[in-house]
Queue: 2 jobs
Job 1
Amino acid sequence: MNKNVIRSVTIVSLFFCILWLVGLGLAVGEYYAGKPDKIPVKTNVEKQVKKKEGLHIVALGDSLTRGTGDETGKGYIGVLMDEIKEKSKQDVQLTNLGISGQRSDSLKQQIQQTEVKRQLQTADMILVTMGGNDLFRGGQALLEFETEDIADIEKKFLENMNFIFQQIRASNPKANVFFIGLYNPFIDLEQGKEMSQVVRHWNYQSAELSASFPNIVFVPTFDLFELKVNDYLYTDKFHPNTKGYRLIAERVASLLTW
Amino acid sequence: MIPLNKLIHNEMMKLIAKKRLVVIAIIIGFLVAMFTYAQYKEVERQREKLGTDDWRTMIQQTIIDQQNRISSARISDEWKKQLQISLQQNQYYLDHDINPSEPGAPTFMRIFLENSIELFIPLMVMVIASDIVSSEHSQGSIKLLLTRPVKRWKVLLSKYITLSLAISLIVAIAGLLSYSISGLVFGYKGWGAPVLTGFTVSDAGLNTASVKLIDQWQFLLMDFGLVWLVAIVVGTLSFMLSVLIRSTAAGMGVMLAALISGAILSNMVSSWESAKYFFMVNLKLTNYMNGNPPPIEGMTLSFSMMVLLVWWAAGLFVSFFVFTKKDVF
């Protein structure tokens, strides 16, 4: 066998051997002795955002935005998307920022993130579901039925939503915002009547708040679930099922303008 | 007496004649091509799903997905914590406007290295290391080798040095192939892309106080160093088995079992604390650089390196001790 081949393979290997040793030394050095850098946090959102072709839809909110309870996994957003794609013949980009279990104070935090603001800026339409977790607290509302407590919660919620809408309008003054109202999942239960009253009041206040901003539309869902609520609820008796989401999506779809 | 470099030359010749390195290069090449395609498909799918290829949007979606998974009641605390750390890291990248996976061959190389440090590279090393001594037995050439007027330790040392050189070469081959093949699809740029390192994981979650910003090429060099160390340790242990066990297949089997058990153990040992003294649980050194939580709480880079070095030294000692003492027939 050629001596030179063997020699050159040996030399190349030796070179890499030394190189990797240097790398190892660097790694240890960096891990233990490297000084932390001051990396600036990016806070300003670029004013000029590249506007792409097609529709950009941003969805904010809770498990309803995620589609919890829908066997097809779409949720009202998914059904609505299908409808929009079909009707508008445009490319539709959806940014779903919904987080299951989210309450208004956490949405208030979320909406102040730089990246979320950037997304809102480019949005053509913004969908919001919020309030279900504030009010019902996973069914706890039924147990602690103190009207005063609920009045407090409602007040806090409206304050948060006011802030959220201000932020949305500051980031994006043009896009239509659809704020989906609450339904009463407990309407068939013992205290359903009282709960309905609370929900109606809650929705009324939400609608009033929405009306004080330009292009923020309150979308009622209370009536959709008023009769035969159990046909439209998932087995957890809280989230809508596939049919329930379809109802909500259809209602929102009927409000869209092109 | 034959000088050491002649012996190494001789060993090197045997290694090249066996064409093992070529086989290894072909295997790595195949796998890299597959991973490149898989990665390409994944990017494609994401783009389709989100309707954009903007990395900020993608990472924002990842964060939201993680938040949703954390808020689900059905996941274990363990998993929840891992998700939380990953989420905080993603958020950190996003807040500081740094793309954690700048598209390009260097990034692919980094991800490839980080994923192959624990099993794939050690396996490739084993292909060479596990029969470097035992094959002399099975071919009967050990007698010829030892009848030469050379001290036994010198024979073994020449074999060990050759092995170390071959390992360095294998790591280099993995780097070169992953760069050149993935570059065809992702482009060859991205050496200067910023990478964050210095995340520390503690009880309280992710600590970003000592985060550093370095260039990707530096980060890669460090990753290579760590991969090399792991390869050397695994190579040494296979080398030891090759001395101890005459059958190459048996030696390979033992090593393979150890490596695979390491990969499995890393996922489930968090409550069995003394498992951290096994070498195979400590192989994922790159995790310390990119801030992934270690398999067992409290493990650090120096701890893992110490464990590996102890195993390495023990393996080397046993190899030389046994080889110089054992009867050859």
Job 2
Amino acid sequence: MSILDIDIYQNKMTILPLLTYRNNNIDYNTVSNLLTQLWTILDKYDINVSNKKKIYSVATECLENIYKHSEFIEKEDSVSFQVNLLNNSIEIKSSNPININKILPICERIEFLKGLNNNSIKQLYLHKIKKRGISNKGGAGLGLILMVRKAEGKIDFRTETINKFVSSLVLTINISFT
Amino acid sequence: MKDLRIEGTKYTPEIIFDCTNKHFSISGNSRPENADAFFKEVFNWFEINGEEVMKLDAVGLIIDLEYFNSSSSKQILNILYKLEYLNPNNTVIKWYYDDEDEEILDAGKEFEEVTSLSFEFHKKR
């Protein structure tokens, strides 16, 4: 991030890309490196610790979901992760290929979670950490709930067909820091 | 009784369960690639040493985490449930948080809500 970039942002540029990753897969070292870079970048802005943790938390769950649940396909840039600075908020955009049999339930789940108020989503989160087992990929299935919760419901999605077996799930998550 | 000592890394917490010196702590960051596999050693330790933990007259578990991901939160809660089962009356959770870090404080309050253990909240600065 150069001084020029920051100047452009301060002069009311709407979107400033902070971090971008595009490839046809992602490994855990890359996940870790992206998160380290993100924390360093966020340190340059006047964002309080709690909001920084919220942004980091959503980015972590988003990247871990991509790492653990993506289908590998031979398509350039089929996996993408981007963090943008907007006026008073951070936007996290991701895209990754998912088996078509799994993508509809995920979309329905996001719609359901978006419809919950703050208290309901908190109660659901607590219920899940108390009751739910760990998946064979090591996730507790809590990531999506946590992402929607931290973003206070500001999460949108769309799907893009890649082939008859796989579609891309494109997420846009907005985390306010005012 | 063998103590449990897991060294911390940039992404995994330091864990010390030392019955001899009554020092129990989980600190650092917790974002292991596979939380289930990472915390397995802790639950194995409880399997072997559960009876000793039951006999302790005080268990003060320090939790001083900068960050933990959602799959770690499940594992941390399971550790609390273990202590709740083994020694509920003598266990105190000492939850540390940075002054400005409401995220970590709130997470501690939520763990307090879902267990019957005593919690103490300690501001770090």
